[in-house]
C-alpha cells in the first residue's frame, strides 16, 4: 500500500503540488493513502482524484482576500523583499467583536467549498483510496485524523479548513464542542500515521530545506516575535515528526522517500504571491524529475 504525505507550509504548498504532479502524472505512481496537514490538506483531495491541472489552477491563484474575512496583515514590498506588518485596525475590530484571534479566515472555508464540490467528494468516496486530514484538538490536547470515507461532505470541508487555520492569525474553530486549529501544531508531516495505517511505501513532501540554510532576522516588534516563536516551534515539531516516522519506517522495513525543498523558498509562507507560487509549482515538478531521474539513470 503506497502513501503520499504532504506537510504544512503555507504558500510553499505550491512547490509540493509540483512534486505531487510529477509523481502522479509523469512517474505514474498510484497511491492508496493521501495525508495532508495544513496547506497539504488543500491539495490531497484533487490529487486522489487525479485532478492535477485543476488543483494547480486553484492553488496558485490564492490571494490574501480569498483567505481572510478579516486580514490581520499588511504586506509591503521593499525592493524584492516582502514584509508583513500587523494591521492594527483589523486586529482591534476582531477583539471588539470578542474574537480570540487576530484575524478571521472564513473566506478560506468558502474557497474550499468552491473548489471541492459535492460531486468531487462523492467521486473520491467510491474510489479505493483514502484521503486523511490532520487537525489539532486544543480542548483534548491531541492530534486527530479525519478520513474522507468516514465524513459527510460539509464536515470534511470543515476539517480541511480547520487544518489550515494557523492561529492566532486565522480562525479558531469550535466543532463538536471542541476547539480546533492547524494540524501542524502537533503533526507537521504525518509519516508516523501513514506507517500505522499500513503503508508499505511512503513518499513524503516536506516544505523546508533538509538543513537550516539561513538565520532568522531579529524581531522588530511583538508581531514579528510571535511569528518567529511559532516558526521555531514548527521547525522542532517537524524534526521530531521526521525522526519518529523514519525510525518506524526503518523498523517495519517500509520504503520511505522524502522530498525537501532544495533552497529556501521564502522566510514568510503567509505571503501568497500568484506569480511566485506558479514558479514554485513548476520548480517542484522539475526538482522531482531531476531527483528521480538521478536515482534511475537510463
Summarize the topology.
Blueprint: E1 2-6, H1 13-26, E2 33-37, H2 44-49, H3 52-59, H4 64-67, E3 73-78, E4 81-86, H5 88-96, H6 106-115, H7 118-125, E5 130-137, E6 142-147, H8 153-164, E7 173-175, E8 178-182, H9 191-196, E9 201-205, H10 222-251, E10 255-259, H11 274-295
Parallel strand pairs: 1-2, 1-9, 2-5, 9-10
Antiparallel strand pairs: 3-4, 5-6, 5-8, 7-8
Helix pairs in contact: 1-3, 1-11, 6-8
Entry keywords:
298 residues, 43% helix, globular, alpha/beta
Shape from CA axes?
A: globular
Low-confidence stretches: none
Secondary structure class reads: alpha/beta
Largest sheet, in brief, is:
8 strands, mixed
Overall mean confidence score, pLDDT? 92
Distance between the termini: 27 Å
Note the run of SSEs as H and E: EHEHHHEEHHHEEHEEHEHEH
Instruction: Report the sheet-strand fraction.
Output: 15-25%
SS summary, helix count: 11
Radius of gyration computed on alpha carbons: 18 Å
Helical content (DSSP H or I, runs of 4+): 40-55%
In total, how many beta strands? 10
Task: Describe the structure in your own words.
With 298 residues, the protein is of the alpha/beta class. It has eleven helices and ten strands. The chain has helices at 13-26, 44-49, 52-59, 64-67, 88-96, 106-115, 118-125, 153-164, 191-196, 222-251, 274-295; strands at residues 2-6, 33-37, 73-78, 81-86, 130-137, 142-147, 173-175, 178-182, 201-205, 255-259. Strands 1, 2, 5, 6, 7, 8, 9 and 10 form an eight-stranded mixed sheet that branches. It has a two-stranded antiparallel sheet with strand order 3-4. Helix 1 (13-26) runs antiparallel to helix 3, helix 1 crosses helix 11 and helix 6 packs across helix 8 (153-164). The chain is globular, with a radius of gyration of 18 Å.
Amino acid at each position: 500500500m503506497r502513501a503520499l504525505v504532504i506537510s504544512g507550509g503555507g504558500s510553499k504548498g505550491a512547490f509540493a503540488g509540483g512534486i505531487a504532479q510529477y509523481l502522479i502524472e509523469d512517474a505514474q505512481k498510484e497511491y492508496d493513502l493521501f495525508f495532508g496537514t495544513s496547506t497539504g490538506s488543500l491539495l490531497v483531495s484533487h490529487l486522489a482524484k487525479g485532478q492535477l491541472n485543476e488543483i494547480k489552477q486553484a492553488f496558485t491563484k490564492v490571494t490574501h482576500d480569498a483567505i481572510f474575512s478579516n486580514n490581520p496583515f499588511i504586506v509591503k514590498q521593499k525592493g524584492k523583499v516582502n514584509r508583513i506588518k500587523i494591521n492594527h485596525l483589523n486586529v482591534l475590530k476582531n477583539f471588539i467583536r470578542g474574537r480570540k484571534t487576530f484575524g478571521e479566515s472564513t473566506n478560506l472555508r468558502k474557497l474550499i467549498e468552491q473548489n471541492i464540490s459535492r460531486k468531487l467528494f462523492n467521486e473520491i468516496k467510491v474510489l479505493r483510496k483514502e484521503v486523511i486530514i490532520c487537525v489539532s484538538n486544543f480542548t483534548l490536547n491531541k492530534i486527530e485524523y479525519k478520513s474522507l470515507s468516514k465524513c459527510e461532505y460539509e464536515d470534511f470541508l470543515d476539517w480541511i479548513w480547520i487544518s489550515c487555520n494557523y492561529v492566532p492569525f486565522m480562525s479558531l474553530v469550535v466543532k463538536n464542542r471542541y476547539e480546533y486549529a492547524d494540524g501542524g501544531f502537533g503533526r507537521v508531516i504525518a509519516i508516523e500515521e501513514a506507517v500505522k495505517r499500513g503503508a508499505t511505501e511512503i513518499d513524503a513532501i516536506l516544505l523546508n530545506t533538509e538543513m537550516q540554510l539561513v538565520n532568522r532576522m531579529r524581531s522588530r516588534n511583538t508581531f514579528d516575535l510571535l511569528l518567529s516563536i511559532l516558526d521555531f516551534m514548527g521547525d522542532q515539531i517537524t524534526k521530531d515528526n521526521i525522526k519518529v516516522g523514519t525510525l518506524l519506517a526503518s523498523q517495519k522495513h517500509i520504503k520511505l522517500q522524502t522530498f525537501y525543498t532544495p533552497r529556501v523558498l521564502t522566510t514568510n509562507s503567509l505571503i501568497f504571491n500568484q506569480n511566485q507560487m506558479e514558479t514554485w509549482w513548476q520548480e517542484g515538478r522539475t526538482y522531482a524529475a531531476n531527483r528521480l531521474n538521478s536515482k534511475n539513470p537510463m
